[in-house]
Amino acid sequence: MLVTKHVLAASSTHSTPYYMVRGAASGPVMVVTSGVHGNETASMAAAQKLADDCAAGRLFIQRGLLIIIPRVNQKAYDKKIRGNPDLNRTFPRRLSAKAKHPLASAVFRLAREHGPDWWIDLHEANGLSQLSSRVLGQTLITNPGSRAVPACRRIIEHMNHSIANRDRHFNLKQHELPGSARTAAARLLKARSVTVETCWSLKRSVRIKYQTRIVHHFLREAGFI
Domain containing 58: what range? Predict the structure, then answer.
């Protein structure tokens, strides 16, 4: 396994580090993004932990290529704000269209170069979806008809089995969000793309734990570990 650190959009004011983890054998490609919204810090901590665990040998990627961008929107993260404009509305919506923000363009260009089979985008949201279907906290979200749906259902079953408090259980949602990284990856790159949302009202350490476990489940589903 080989872990290398790089800089995305290095010559711009949007520069941010990312990691490439190459498994011992060839295999699928997965992109893990976090920090598209700069105030969702637990998801960023989980993504950074993923990169750090790979670099330290605590997590061994057996095959494939894993690309991790822990803090996509570094400028928004520095200010602890969601970001203006909302970066998750600026990814390309058609093959012939360009991203509406240079940072979204840089992220998508990197992904397109490597042709991801999977794209996991880590976020945080208000509310517990187990208590209200109108909120997004504690959900996995994918596009309708996505090939990721079976894996999402299995992962939700695993997660909920380990969570004693049923109010914190995860649910599956299926909808398109034009301009988001998830929908762009599904539509234009044909990736199995999923948004992971944990609930802001939970302790930060718990949110990091949930995000980390979910990513590990996706890595197993895809055959990386």
Answer: 2-222
Model pLDDT for residues 116-143, shown as the tens digit of each residue:
999 999 999 999 999 999 999 999 999 9
Nearest-angstrom CA–CA distance, 15 and 26: 29
**How many domains are contained in the chain?**
1
85-to-36, 91, 95, 102 alpha-carbon distances in Å: 11, 12, 22, 12
- Global pTM reads 0.97
CATH code, domain with 67: 3.40.630.10
Q: At 222, phi and psi to the nearest 5? A: -85, -5
Amino acid at the residue 179: G
Q: What is the pLDDT of residue 72?
A: 98
**Does residue 224 contact residue 23 with C-beta atoms inside 8 Å?**
yes
Cβ distance 125 to 165 under 8 Å? no
